[in-house]
Fold this sequence. Notes:
The structure is a homodimer of 194-residue chains. With 194 residues, chain A is an all-alpha fold. Chain A contains 10 helices and no strands.
Amino acid sequence: MAKIGxxxxxxxxxxxxxDAATRQFGAHGYDATTIRSVAAEAGVDPALVLHFFxxxxxxxxxxxxxxxxxxxxxxxxxxxxxxxxxxxxxDLFVSTWDAEDRRNPIVALLQAAMNQEPAGRHLRDVVERxxxxxxxxxxxxxxxxxxxxxxxSQLLGLGVARYVLGFEPIASLPAEAVIDLVSPSVQRSLTGxx
Amino acid sequence: MAKIGxxxxxxxxxxxxxDAATRQFGAHGYDATTIRSVAAEAGVDPALVLHFFxxxxxxxxxxxxxxxxxxxxxxxxxxxxxxxxxxxxxDLFVSTWDAEDRRNPIVALLQAAMNQEPAGRHLRDVVERxxxxxxxxxxxxxxxxxxxxxxxSQLLGLGVARYVLGFEPIASLPAEAVIDLVSPSVQRSLTGxx
Lengths: 194, 194
């Protein structure tokens, strides 16, 4: 049985657990990944995973990495001026999601968020607090919380249709075509008359 | 052990299993409902549930009843003319979802659809084939499949934000306010320039 106290190598062990968790949640989704399967890949006892992370959902929230850094990307969305902000925001999401080969941590996060309250909270925190509220504040929009909700529902709805449920033709369209189709509604939610 | 061959009362037994399943999936969601718990409420052996329905996901797809009849409601959405069709469609969804006390079979269907392919297929069949494609055909719109995808992603995104993830303020707004906010984008997807 592995010792579970603080010791040299703890950080490396946590990292290898997180790497295995990120890979498995991304490849197999939330339901099909288990504490046991993550522990096996990281070469540790399942009890150690629980000791570090508490539960499967807490491990998930720690392991799922948003595929871009909001603090770096939000200024780029704002940078070109108000009018193109909707298009640059949709481009940021679609390009990122497409690049991750569609079996990515964000699909797993969307799936988990529907059934697991902590995953839903995590998704809301990233999308609303870290991305949309700073963006809307910089754009000088009114009713920021409400606009953040509307944009989040548009982006999550697109994510569900294109990546999770695979609605056709939207799942197979090139990124550029999807961005053209969705940007006007997102722009209206960001800066238009509500 | 209950006999599982065809016999008098089979229809009544199936109905009582479906009633229990509809109630439990609606009240507790897909994950927390089991073949065993449904069988217990219906007063039958779990093996009989599996005999009739094959698996939990097949039971779910049989038990989840869409809360309105598309064949009756789609003509009402079309009836008032093209211009208000987006508003009447959003009103139909929001009013129905609100009336069901938000712990309804549709929330369970959204949740299950994210993780279970048959539930995703069922959701797509109802929303696209039974509701949106007939509606768009009657409206005389071009690019019907694509428009159906776009409207579906807007309505599902709203459902996720308002009913599943509980984003504020959109989760607490009166139905009328939500309909005002979402209808213009839906109208554009139904009949506007893409």
